[in-house]
C-alpha cells in the first residue's frame, strides 16, 4: 500500500476501494453498451471533477503556486485593463498550466499505485510529467511577459 493520502484504503478480492469516491477503481458498468443521457449522471461527473481539483489543491504544493500566479495575473489584467484579445492569451496560458498540473498529478498517483516501490520507469514517467508542467509554466510566463509588456 502506498504512503500517500490518495492511496487505496484497502484491497479486497483484487479490487481497490477508492476512499475519495467510494467505488472500486477498476469498476466498469456495461462496457460497450451506450448509456442514455442522464442529468444526474452528468451532475455526478462534475462532482467527481470538482473533488479531484479540490484534492489536488489540498495535496499539491505546486497547485498553490499556480493558484497564486493565476490570482496575480487576473489582478494585473484588471489593473491594466487589458484588452479582450490579451485576456484570451492570458486565460489560455493559465488553463494550459492548470491542465498540465492536473495531468501530472494524476500520473503521479497512478504511478504510486502501480509501483509503490522505486522503479526507474516510474521515475522517468514522473519526471516527464513534471517536465510538461515546467514547459507549460515557462510558456505561460513568456505569454504573460509579452502580453503585459505594452501596458507597462
Question: What is this structure, in a nutshell?
Answer:
The protein has 152 residues and is mainly α. The protein has four helices and three strands. A three-stranded antiparallel β-sheet has the order 1-2-3, with no helix packed on it.
Can you offer a commentary on this structure?
It contains four helices and three strands, in the order βββαααα. It has helices at 39-59, 61-79, 84-114, 120-148; strands at residues 10-12, 15-18, 23-24. The protein has a three-stranded antiparallel β-sheet with strand order 1-2-3, with no helix packed on it. A hairpin with a 4-residue loop joins strand 2 (15-18) and strand 3. The protein is globular. It starts with 9 loop residues before the first strand and ends with a helix.
Identify the notable features of this structure and list them briefly:
152 residues; mainly alpha; 4 helices; globular; disordered N terminus
Number of helices: 4
Quantity of strands, as a count: 3
Structural class: mainly alpha
Relative strand content: 5-15%
- Report the radius of gyration as a whole number of Å: 19 Å
Largest sheet: 3 strands, antiparallel
> What global shape is seen?
globular
| Helix-strand sequence | EEEHHHH
- List unreliable stretches of 5+ residues: 1-17
Q: How would you write the strand order of the largest sheet?
A: 1-2-3
Average pLDDT over all residues: 85
Give the helix level as a range of percent.
55-70%
Span between termini:
52 Å
Amino acid at each position: 500500500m502506498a504512503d500517500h493520502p490518495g492511496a487505496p484504503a484497502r484491497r479486497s478480492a483484487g479490487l481497490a476501494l477508492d476512499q475519495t469516491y467510494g467505488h472500486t477503481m477498476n469498476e466498469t458498468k456495461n462496457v460497450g453498451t451506450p448509456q442514455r443521457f442522464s442529468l444526474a449522471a452528468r451532475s455526478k461527473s462534475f462532482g467527481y471533477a470538482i473533488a479531484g481539483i479540490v484534492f489536488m489543491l489540498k495535496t499539491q504544493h505546486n497547485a498553490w503556486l499556480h493558484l497564486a500566479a493565476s490570482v496575480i495575473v487576473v489582478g494585473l489584467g484588471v489593473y491594466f485593463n487589458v484588452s479582450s484579445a490579451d485576456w484570451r492569451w492570458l486565460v489560455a496560458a493559465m488553463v494550459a498550466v492548470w491542465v498540465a498540473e492536473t495531468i501530472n498529478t494524476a500520473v503521479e498517483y497512478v504511478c504510486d499505485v502501480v509501483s509503490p516501490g522505486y522503479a526507474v520507469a516510474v521515475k522517468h514517467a514522473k519526471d516527464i510529467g513534471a517536465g510538461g508542467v515546467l514547459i507549460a509554466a515557462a510558456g505561460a510566463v513568456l505569454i504573460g511577459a509579452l502580453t503585459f509588456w505594452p501596458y507597462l
